[in-house]
Design a protein that fits this description.
Helix content is about 40%, strand content about 15%. The protein contains nine helices and nine strands. Strands 1-9-8-7-2-5-6 form a seven-stranded parallel beta sheet, sandwiched between helices. The chain has a two-stranded antiparallel ribbon with strand order 3-4. Strand 7, helix 8 and strand 8 form a beta-alpha-beta unit. Helix 1 packs across helix 2 and helix 5 packs parallel to helix 9.
Length: about 230
């Protein structure tokens, strides 16, 4: 694994034309928001707050799998009906944008990189992107409702590659979980970890400020002419 730092060889970044981002844990810090949200449903059914294992699970899985994991089976359908009328704006105060990510996206967009999202979220992405001031950066935005099979299936990434008409060798998936790692592997694209050295990733990004600094260095040093801005 290569850890992004100021000693990293810029050739690592050569030939990349597009970045696919996970949402939770990458674009936004939503761990506290997810805990608050799912505990509201557990409290409604007279259940105690989630365990640490359940908190970790719901942070990386889609809503449907999360409800199945944290609620009794006989409560699932009622929870889904409640979800349809839940005012998600109540969750947004618990969500914050990852430091440095907007500056990174502005630079990437200015250099012509393709940008997309592949997330386990369902129908809350418009709220999240608007709240985090990230609307308009990504095309397409693939959610758990967009394709027949959500992550870790490859459907979302393959949809993005098709829309971009871009070979998988020129695309990087940036994620923070085993689910993201498996998604990238299933689709045959490169996987870069955000903030977690334990994942099986080609590259680990410690923070977006460091990542952007090294992208700029690579571009200035000529690696970009091998594919970064082509």
């Amino acid at each position: 694994m290569i850890i992004v730092n100021d000693l990293m060889r810029p050739e690592v970044l050569a030939g990349i034309r597009g970045f696919i981002f996970d949402c939770d844990g990458v674009l936004i810090d939503s761990f506290a928001a997810n805990v608050w949200y799912y505990n509201r449903f557990r409290a409604h059914f007279g259940l105690p707050p989630m365990s640490p294992e359940e908190e970790r699970y719901t942070h990386t899985r889609n809503t449907f799998d999360s409800f199945r994991h944290i609620l009794p089976p006989e409560r699932y359908e009622e929870a889904m009906r409640m979800r349809e009328t839940f005012d998600y704006r109540l969750v947004l105060p618990h969500v914050r944008r990852e430091p440095g990510v907007r500056g990174l996206l502005l630079w990437l967009r200015s250099r012509g990189f393709r940008l997309a999202v592949n997330t386990s979220r369902a129908d809350t992405m418009d709220h999240i992107l608007s709240h985090a001031d990230l609307t308009g950066f990504f095309r397409p935005v693939v959610t758990a409702l967009t394709e027949p099979r959500p992550k870790p299936a490859s459907d979302g990434v393959l949809r993005i590659l098709s829309d971009w008409r871009c070979p998988r060798e020129e695309v990087v998936f940036i994620g923070d979980s085993v689910v993201d790692e498996r998604t990238a592997r299933a689709a045959g694209v490169r996987f870069w970890s955000y903030g977690d050295e334990r994942l099986d990733a080609e590259v680990m990004i410690p923070d977006f400020f460091t990542f952007l600094r090294n992208l700029r260095r690579a571009y200035a040093g000529g690696a970009g002419h091998a594919g970064l801005d082509s």
